[in-house]
Amino acid sequence: MMDHEVDQQRILLAAETLVKEKLERDSSGHDWWHIYRVVQTTKRIAAQEGADGFVCELAALLHDVVDEKLNADPAAAQRELEDWLAASGTPAAQVEHVLEIISTMSFKGGARPPMATLEGQVVQDADRLDAIGAVGVSRVFAYSGWKGRPIHDPSVIAREQMTVEEYRGGNDTAINHFYEKLLKLKELMNTAYARELAEERHRFMELYLQQFYAEWEGER
Ligand code: ADP
Ligand code: NI
After folding, report:
1. What is the 8-class DSSP label of residue 150?
2. CA nearest neighbour of 133 among 187, 198, 196
3. What angle do CA 157, 131, 198 make, to 5 degrees?
4. Contact 70/64 with Cβ under 8 angstroms?
5. Lowest CB count within 10 Å: 49, 70, 179, 218, which one?
6. Among residues 48, 92, 91, 42, which one has the least CA distance to residue 62?
7. Where does residue 33 rank: exposed (0-12), middle (13-18), buried (19+ CB within 10 A)?
8. Which pLDDT belongs to residue 157?
9. What is the pLDDT of residues 32-84, one digit of tens each?
10. Locate the HD/PDEase domain: which residues (predicted)?
């Protein structure tokens, strides 16, 4: 191994320790194992797409530590992250790159900026892939339960026809989140390889919903 590879491994390990500490007690779907899965998928996509593996993995590890759902004070969390990166031994250009990826990923509100670099696209794809497929299904129900929301309410399906304002005014269900977001994620993949991975996960969700409705009506 070359020296800088040893450094990179050390930095990635330190980031892992930091993130585990921070996310350990979360039950909103941002637990350590979400990070683990995003890292695994990130590595796979990065290798296929020829992206910088170190930047991808570091950004994947740290992508949720500034999330406002996890931090009472997101600005303080952002400063902590910047300080940590500056002291980590990561070269300045890569620190900038990782910070840019994380801030683009956690952008809130309309007019979401597109990912400027391949590495950012890879990590964003991996994060979105974790919201679909069998794992995605599990996460929707975990999140809904955490929010105290019902699994399903057939009258909510009709809300698909309503305006966004009317829709948001009603009470959310887990099943409704598939239509609001999860079934749209396949089309939002940045990279060709992630789109490929998304296909199977998407088909699985469609199959899941078919089975769900059939069971709901006692048809199967
Ligand atoms: P990210 O990991 O990209 O920050 P979010 O914070 O948007 O994702 O959501 C985390 C998980 O919780 C995802 O799997 C998502 O599907 C689920 N989730 C988010 N909002 C809702 C919702 N309104 N109803 C059900 N599940 C949700
Ligand atoms: Ni995430």
Report:
1. -
2. 198
3. 100
4. yes
5. 218
6. 42
7. exposed
8. 58
9. 999 999 999 999 999 999 999 999 999 999 999 998 777 888 899 999 999 99
10. 27-141
